[in-house]
Amino acid sequence: MKIWIDITNAPHVRFFKDIIEYFKNEGEDLIVTGRKFGDIHKLMDMYNIDFESIGGHGVSLEDKLKTSTERLNNLVDFIVGEKIDVALSKHSIELPRVSFGLSIPSLYVLDNEHAQAANKLTLPLCDRLIAPQIIDVWKLLSYGMDPNDLIRYDGTSEIMHFKNFEFNENIFNDLNLDLKFPKTILMRPEPSLASYLDADCRHSVLSPVVETLKKYANILILPRFKEQAEIFEGIENVTILHPPVDTSSIIKKADLVIGAGGTMNREAAILQTPVISCYPGIPLSADKYYINKDLMFRINDTDEIINKALKLLVAPKKHIQINHDNLFKLIVDNVYDLAK
């Protein structure tokens, strides 16, 4: 069986790494494609994933349209002669369109119901869709999805990131971090270049939070791109992390996570590290999943973020049991089923 996996965002590398390893061990023929965007290439190399880099990512709407169209054409040229049995992606714009056009069965994993443009372009073309139960099915139907193609599960996609996770207790020492305070906060800026968020990539909602909390704790910043790193350069007690790094161990080792995005916040919730979400857009249902379980705090007011952070830094950690469905098995089973 020949499987095509398209990886178009950095967190998707961690999502698919164990799936890729599994299919390889089963003797399946794999073709992995990616694009030049964020840390995708570095993470692919970090996890020893063989891939073909095709296309990139635009900034403006015009750039996004042109870049996606060009990537679509190049993917068609690359895939057309490969005799693919089944295609698999998570929020790839191009894979469902190429698969539909070439009559390749496709499995699509979704966790962002607010990505309107992406969902309208892809959901009607997918043969099967896997999405968290907490997402309103009517929202997905509004994008043109066939309800008979939907498979729902209890949990969020980030559970895939930790299937074979081994915690490195010495991660801070391995990174040679100069930590002056006993407490450490990991921060992740907002996804400024995403089509679903109207934000300036040269400013961050985290800036005023950093200015205050740097007096009480070590601040680690994991930027998404160069312009975000420049926002926080030269600030006392602030360390900018340069990917690729073992983010999972950093999250678990940290005393608190403050994130203006989504993936890392949900990873923190799964790892039971206290996390404050200050995402400047409408929160995803995937975030609400952990907010409802008291594993994530949703705050947008700067003063409230700071006050809550100071309280969480001194509060004892409490463990909350959560039981997810087996998303890994769900994906594997559906890939084989579609390839029949």
Automatic annotation (TrEMBL):
Pfam families tied to this protein: DUF354 (PF04007)
Domain of life, source organism: Archaea
Coiled coil: none
InterPro entries referenced in this protein's UniProt entry, alphabetically: DUF354
PANTHER family: DUF354 DOMAIN-CONTAINING PROTEIN, DUF354 DOMAIN-CONTAINING PROTEIN-RELATED
Designated name of the protein: DUF354 domain-containing protein
